[in-house]
Design goal:
By secondary structure, the chain is of the alpha+beta class. 47% of the residues lie in helices and 21% in strands. The strands form two sheets. Strands 1, 2, 3, 4, 5, 6 and 7 form a seven-stranded antiparallel β-sheet that branches. Strands 8-9 form a two-stranded antiparallel ribbon. Strand 3 and strand 4 form a beta hairpin.
């Protein structure tokens, strides 16, 4: 598979389980705002990863463990390279096996000087490492062992990393976001073309004005900002992984306004495309 593919968005389900598990190598990427209808856990083995969750930016390094709850809008950026373990547990699976899952929030904090917390987090990391070994070695009856580790993982996060929540709006948020899933999919397939507000509002089966208001409310940006962000994510990928000229990259990903591109790129990454490439030399 081409390393330029967004491997952590193409995740293979474990046989006979609903969960998704992936050993991931990222040669450099920027993934625009999105969410999952699942609990997403990323364990960085090497390198670093920048994650923006609902307006706050977090910088993670090797041996950090990241948890992203269902319905949380987030983007990720790998500046150079990283390797990681990625586990996604769908809401349907969590609701089946975790009590009070619908009013629970899970959180891994980093750099906390607390012995019990570090001990519990070490257990989580050990479970993920053991899952990785099963994935690599594929031992006899490995699926049974993986299943046991998965339920131990659920026990650990429920016992040690659960935060009860009572905000009805927070609980219902994944349901509200689901109406925008066709919008994101349509954008992914057609981002190279011009997409009007009327066109995309029809995909969501909403009036244009109402669509614009609700999209910004939930995604934290206008649809046009999101569309350009998707284009930039693919442009960033090609800047990192190809020697193609910037003009050809912009053209191949539907960005026709060069002045706007430079403005948005500098605002997002605090440097120019040329400077991005120089950092990799």
């Amino acid at each position: 598979m081409d390393k330029r593919d967004f491997l952590h968005e193409i995740i293979e389900p474990i046989e006979n389980l609903d969960v998704n598990f992936k050993l991931f190598e990222d040669s450099g990427s920027y993934i625009s705002n999105h969410w999952h209808n699942s609990l997403e856990i990323i364990y960085l083995i090497s390198g670093d990863l920048q994650v923006n969750m609902e307006g706050s930016t977090y910088n993670f390094k090797a041996n950090d463990c990241i948890i992203i709850n269902s319905g949380i809008i987030h983007s990720t950026r790998c500046v150079y390279e990283n390797t990681s373990i990625l586990l996604q547990i769908p809401l349907s699976f969590l609701n089946k096996y975790i009590p009070d899952c619908k009013d629970s929030y899970f959180d891994f904090k980093v750099n906390i000087n607390n012995y019990n917390y570090e001990t519990n987090l070490a257990k989580i990391k050990t479970i993920l490492k053991d899952m990785k070994e099963i994935k690599i070695a594929s031992p006899q009856a490995g699926n049974l062992r993986f299943t046991g580790l998965l339920f131990e993982f659920l026990f650990q996060i429920y016992t040690n990393f659960r935060i009860p929540i009572g905000d009805k709006n927070t609980i219902n948020r994944p349901l509200e976001l689901s109406r925008f899933e066709p919008v994101l999919e349509y954008t992914r397939l057609n981002y190279k073309n011009s997409i009007s507000i009327n066109e995309i509002a029809q995909i969501a089966h909403l009036q244009p004005e109402y669509f614009c208001r609700k999209f910004k409310q939930y995604m934290g940006q206008t649809y046009l900002e999101y569309l350009n962000d998707v284009r930039i994510s693919y442009i960033y990928r090609d800047l990192i992984n190809t020697n193609n000229t910037l003009c050809s990259i912009l053209e191949s990903h539907g960005f026709t306004n060069n002045k706007l591109f430079y403005k948005l790129f500098r605002k997002k990454f605090n440097c120019t495309p040329k400077e991005i490439r120089k950092k990799l030399i």
